[in-house]
Amino acid sequence: MSIQVFGLPVSRGVAIGRAVLIASSRVDVAHYFVDGSQIEGEIERLRTARDLVAGELTVLQRDLPAEAPPELSALLDVHLMLLHDETLTGATKHWIRERHYNAEWALSAQLEVLARQFDEMEDEYLRERKADLEQVAERLLRALARGGGSALVPAAAQARDFGGEDPLVLVANDISPADMLQFKRSVFTGFVTDVGGKTSHTAIVARSMDIPAVVGAREASHLIRQDDWVIIDGDAGLVIVDPSPIVLEEYRFRQRQSELERARLNRLRHTPAVTLDGQPVQLMANIELPGDAPAALEAGAVGVGLFRTEFLFMNRTGDLPGEEEQFECYRTVVQSMKGLPVTIRTVDVGADKPLDRMSVQELRHEHALNPALGLRAIRWSLSEPSMFRQQLRAILRASAFGKVRLLLPMVAHLSEIRLTLEALARAKQQLADAGRPFVDVEVGAMIEVPAAALMLPTFLRYFDFVSIGTNDLIQYTLAIDRADEAVAHLYDPWHPAVLRLIAETIAQANAARKDVSVCGEMAGDPQFTELLLAMGLRSFSMHPAQIAAIKQRVLRADTRRHASVLQRVLAADDAETECRLAFQRSEQPAAVTI
Ligand code: PEP
Ligand code: MG
């Protein structure tokens, strides 16, 4: 019988495929595909880890004090037995061979299968053995981590050669932004997670991949089993497990319709974005990796409005990227954009974008109590001055190859501005001393906290441009964790306080003749296009796949009608309804009735 699960729609369209599950684990587990040549290496890692754990357990048992209760020794026997049981390590090899999972993923996938079998057991004693199994698996995962990853995490490895012909969708309790990045160019045609909010970074990466996704679907990863057929309705936030043939047919029809719509919109890609009354509007791209730049050009972006460089710092088994490596990445993007501006944001780690497991330990900022309010973004960079200067030098050096703009995340204090400008001056001096060419880049600030929006006239004295990060501005204005599905219903871009802060920021920047853009998710959401135009915004930055739909809105907009509408919307208790009435928008398609 089919099951329906509701969550938050975060990336539009319909995906139909077989489920690939990522099990949740108490140990931080990396998930990636290994290619054919790495399979034996992964199996060897697993074998080594098993031998290591067997050794540990044997020593533990040998050294038990004489007065220890006999159950303890018996328990260790059980653990040793489980460790050598084919259903754990043998079947784990199967996941590595057949699915090309890395050893940790394969082990946690098998653990999930076994845990479900234990849960269904009648016998209470046997049911309780699940905890032992989990402990053994946990020991194995830790041993795998100690033994090191399989060389570099193979970003290029993709699941092309497993799973037969069926399309695949990924189902997980949670997927870290780092894992999402691994899957960016892989075979998955959709995502479902139990947790997460609409602008969590996991959702943002899903959107950047332009594949249907639902987050905050709570029980999804428990209800869905490996290989189940799943429909992901990314418009309605609905997941249907094991659909009936009629429902499947209906959704296949919807899928074809949305592909046709996409192809139709795509024809706009080289049309300049100009409103009906002749106002030119810049539509730029948000990117995460250098490899995203060609897609930005292809989508008709007139520049990169936000390069989230922190993604270069993820999925690394050792060091963070140094100046040379970063410089090569930035130069690649600048050259790919063929003379169009590239806005490079300094690293914004922290909150829901933690650094990779190993690096983060070295850098000591692992377990902040409240990471969204903790050492993230510019605060983190200023606390790591040499790393910060390395990044600034790398960005400056890339400016010798095209138009580069430097963007600072989450600035809130004047002291942060001063320290940053000092670091920049020092980086420039170092480059000048070394005879390295660079250009005097424009410097901008993200407006992401209410304090920055309220201080704008002062901030504008220090910056050439500002970019409004609505994702964080909403989070910090409303005190709603953007990654927490439990409060996702309160995360409201239509909140009058949010709209007023955005409108004021745009108005003040325009009055000061400084460039202002929006690079948060509101920029790529067609519901807000007319309203942002009415506020005076003429520069939007979004995922490349969203550009065509926003351009269509721009082409149909007439800014002469906007002034009176803006006042009404800003004064309204229910801005969303007021805005819809004013601009007569058609709504998103409803879910198929089943
Ligand atoms: C934002 O906060 O709106 C933004 C664009 O930055 P990020 O989503 O990377 O935090
Ligand atoms: Mg932000």
Key structural traits:
eight-stranded parallel β-sheet; 594 residues; alpha/beta; 23 helices; Enzyme I, Chain A, domain 2; eight-stranded mixed β-sheet; TIM Barrel; 3 domains; binds magnesium ion; Glucose Oxidase, domain 1; binds phosphoenolpyruvate
Reconstruct the topology from this structure.
Layout: E1 3-6, E2 8-11, E3 14-22, H1 39-62, H2 70-84, H3 86-99, H4 103-119, H5 124-146, E4 168-172, H6 177-182, E5 188-193, H7 201-208, E6 213-215, H8 220-223, E7 229-233, E8 238-241, H9 245-266, E9 282-287, H10 293-298, E10 304-308, H11 323-336, E11 342-345, H12 357-362, H13 377-383, H14 385-398, E12 404-408, H15 414-433, E13 442-447, H16 450-454, H17 456-460, E14 465-468, H18 470-478, H19 496-511, E15 515-518, H20 529-534, E16 539-542, H21 547-556, H22 562-571, H23 575-583
Parallel strand pairs: 3-4, 4-5, 5-6, 9-10, 9-16, 10-11, 11-12, 12-13, 13-14, 14-15
Antiparallel strand pairs: 1-8, 2-6, 3-7, 7-8
Helix pairs in contact: 1-2, 1-3, 1-5, 2-5, 3-4, 4-5, 11-14, 14-15, 22-23
The protein binds phosphoenolpyruvate (PEP) and magnesium ion.
Magnesium ion is lined by residues 409, 448, 469, 471-472.
3D architecture notes:
- The chain contains 23 helices and 16 strands.
- The chain has 594 residues and is of the alpha/beta class.
- The chain has 3 domains: 3-21 and 155-263, Phosphohistidine domain (Glucose Oxidase, domain 1, 3-Layer(bba) Sandwich), CATH 3.50.30.10; 36-147, PtsI, HPr-binding domain (Enzyme I, Chain A, domain 2), CATH 1.10.274; 279-568, TIM Barrel.
- It has an 8-stranded mixed sheet. Strands 15-14-13-12-11-10-9-16 form an 8-stranded parallel sheet.
- It is globular, with a radius of gyration of 26 Å.
